[in-house]
Amino acid sequence: MPKPKYHILVCKNTRPPGHPKGSCGEKGAMGVLNQFNFGVMERNLLGRVIVTPTDCLGPCQMGPTVVVYPDGVWYKSVTDADVAVILDEHIGKGKPVDRLKLPDEVWG
Fold first, then answer.
1. Looking at residue 92, what DSSP letter applies?
2. Per CATH, is 6-107 categorized as 3.40.50.720?
């Protein structure tokens, strides 16, 4: 198996209901994860792209959070419908999806 070109991390962390930070899990992260796995297979990207579920990546209030490496692009509030756009534009054409990018100010 060749080394994958892209590694997509999908936060699936879930906190108890009512937690002040919220969580990616309560905002639909499992659906997003499933869409990435299905989309990679559907586009015949197995071996070129690996998708990994993670626990908390940090910006919970803006989840579900997705990170694409080696580009280091962080995406916020990703929905099932956004997955196809990320796969087709970022992975397929090398153009990150600006409207979904997590703003750098989150880390400030």
1. H
2. no
